[in-house]
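Anyone have tokens for Unc-50-like protein? Sequence:
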Amino acid sequence: MSYSRSTSPLPLPVNHQRDCMSAATKRWKYLRRMLKFDQMDFEFAFWQMIYLFIAPQKVYRNFQYRKQTKSQFARDDPAFLVLFAAWLCITSVGFAIVLRLTFWKFIHFLLYVIFIDCIGSGLLIATAFWYVLNKYFRLNEDQDIEWGFAFDIHLNAFFPPLIILHFCQLFFYNGLISHEWFISRYIGNTFWLIAVSYYVYITFLGYSSLQILQRTHLLLVPLPIIVIFYFVSLAAGFNITYFLMRFYKERVV
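Reply: yep, here.
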């Protein structure tokens, strides 16, 4: 499928340019801009976050545009990563309040979320997709998937679950989800069903946007498995949210 920039409602990134750089140069330029907030396009990154919820397929049209103008799919502007990190901090404060964590336990929890749940798992997942898809799904041996793009796909797919599970769900936890009622596990498990489905679907959209890949529909195979597990958990009386909230608390004690 070919995407046209004119069909995307997202604004243009302000720093687009027509040049080609080596992978090492691109990485160095990205890292060098991490602390230069005045050079980041936060408006563009904010719009991407909104569209990851309402129309995630349109976000990848801008990745196609970047490939045409900068010869790379991966983001060259760290604004999205900076906003993502800010949301991690905000939602972790919510967790600390709900779980009644002390200040130092909150710091422990925040570091765990950033370096294990997000970055650590992201490195493993992005590398696994990068290796498997390059090895078994490529149509053309002369082109391959950028590892940076694989990591961007993980961040894109991780953002809606972050907001759903680490923000929205917290408002219902103490008053409703933490009990042993059926409605408690129904609401809690439904939050997880929506969040994990978002992750799988956005991951599929990211890789299916690449013309060099085939059989990307196989990335949707986990969805029916997730739905089956959802109904089994309801029938078995297993409250996923309550179980994981206890796990979150115990790992920082």
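The longest helix spans residues 103-136.
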